[in-house]
Design brief:
Layout lengths: L1 H15 L5 H30 L4 H22 L2 H6 L1 H18 L1 E2 L4 E5 L6 E2 L1 H20 L6 H21 L3 H17 L4 H22 L1 H11 L10 H12 L25 H33 L4 H25 L17 H19 L5
Antiparallel strand pairs: 1-2, 2-3
Helix pairs in contact: 2-3, 2-12, 3-14, 5-6, 5-7, 6-7, 6-8, 6-13, 7-8, 7-9, 8-13, 9-10, 11-12, 12-13, 13-14
């Protein structure tokens, strides 16, 4: 009798919580492992010279990785309906935090983008939270209004307020790369949600153009970045130092690379190699073959994410999965474009690879949501 009761309860639990996507889990695990190993290698000389501890960055990254994995486990077990119900509240919270940054935040470099966590030495970037916030609010809005008549107000203006409100605040922080990423994520969600491309191009395109021109005219550092990118004779020892050294690192890797930990450019040539330019150190140590392997892993991860999105059980889940996967795809593409000098250097991190606590934890929280969606998606 007890055995029968136990079996019935076990069956109920199994029904309530199907297994997560194993292929996605394996791909994520491999990328996280490689990223952690590369942070140790890339950061060691910089950490030794600045903190007298070569393991300074890797120790912190491992702590954030553990926190992120715990958060991912929690978010993967929460029902997707909970995310739908809290979408508006989460977006408003992110919006308020972005406002607080403008008055009570602090900067590391040019951009004022950080908030301290009271009672701790930790800090985070609300703009990282807003990436998820814009995915949730637009997915909620589209799923709620999918059966309504598509007027200009409902199809373009209202979602535009959500999107450009967030982008405007991040732009005021002088965080250009964050603004671009949030805008692209939002446009991807709107596009897959069925918003007219012509209307988006006209209304959003003109708005973005006006905002971009105004930002460049009022921020000399951003204009300088573009000028140095467009000028082939820019000073390689100042304006294009990091980009140039990154290209040297990629080129010196050859076919098979110099070997793990054997990079030369990480010794005070590539500035802070554990951050945005970590891909260049990967290429130097692992070579062209290593670069192809890493790009393939990211492509497989992105492909798996889109498969989950297109097989999700409802519109909201599908759009959220699509938005999260698109965020990873956008950041991977832009990071690699920056370090190979295809676009101006705007400081874009490589997901799961670049050093950064708040970014890693939030990315893993998003992956947890993707795992939650995958439990109920229709793919085998």
């Amino acid at each position: 009798m007890k055995t029968e009761l136990y079996n019935k309860n076990a069956e109920k639990i199994k029904k309530k919580l199907p297994p997560i996507d194993f292929k996605l889990l394996m791909l994520l695990s491999i990328i996280l492992t490689l990223g952690t190993l590369m942070i140790f290698s890339a950061s060691y000389p910089y950490a030794q010279s600045h903190y007298n501890d070569g393991a300074y960055y890797i120790k912190r990254q491992i702590i954030f990785l553990i926190i992120g994995l715990i958060v991912m486990l929690v978010t993967s077990r929460l029902p997707i309906n909970l995310y739908k119900k809290t979408s508006v509240g989460f977006y408003v919270t992110c919006f308020v935090l972005l406002v607080i940054v403008l008055f009570g935040g602090f900067s590391e470099g040019v951009a004022k983008r950080w908030l301290g966590i009271p009672g701790t030495p930790l800090s985070f970037q609300p703009s990282e939270l807003m990436k998820l916030g814009i995915i949730l609010i637009l997915s909620w809005y589209i799923s709620k209004n999918q059966d309504c008549k598509k007027t200009l107000l409902k199809e373009i203006v209202f979602p535009g307020i959500f999107l450009f409100g967030a982008c405007g605040l991040v732009l005021l922080e002088k965080h250009l790369s964050g603004t671009i990423i949030i805008a692209l994520i939002g446009l991807c969600v709107l596009f897959i949600g069925g918003t007219s491309i012509k209307k988006m191009s006209l209304v959003y395109g003109l708005t973005a153009l006006a905002g971009g021109v105004l930002f460049l005219l009022t921020n000399s550092y951003a204009m300088k970045l573009i000028e140095s990118f467009l000028n082939p004779n820019a000073d390689m020892l100042s304006d294009k130092w990091q980009t140039t050294q990154g290209l040297y690192a990629i080129g010196s890797g050859g076919l098979f690379g110099l070997g793990y930990t054997n990079s030369r450019q990480k010794y005070s040539y590539v500035s802070e190699p554990q951050n945005d330019f970590i891909f260049t150190i990967w290429c130097e140590e692992m070579g062209f073959i290593g670069a192809v392997i890493l790009i393939t892993l990211f492509l497989l991860l992105i492909r798996r994410g889109y498969k989950i999105a297109f097989n999700a059980s409802d519109t909201f889940s599908s759009l959220v999965a699509f938005g999260i996967t698109s965020q990873i795809a956008i950041q991977v593409l832009l990071n690699m474009a920056v370090v190979t000098d295809l676009i101006p250097n705007t400081g874009i991190s490589l997901p799961f690879f670049s050093y950064g606590g708040s970014s890693l934890v939030i990315l893993l929280a998003e992956m947890g949501i993707l795992f939650s969606i995958s439990r109920y998606s229709r793919q085998i």
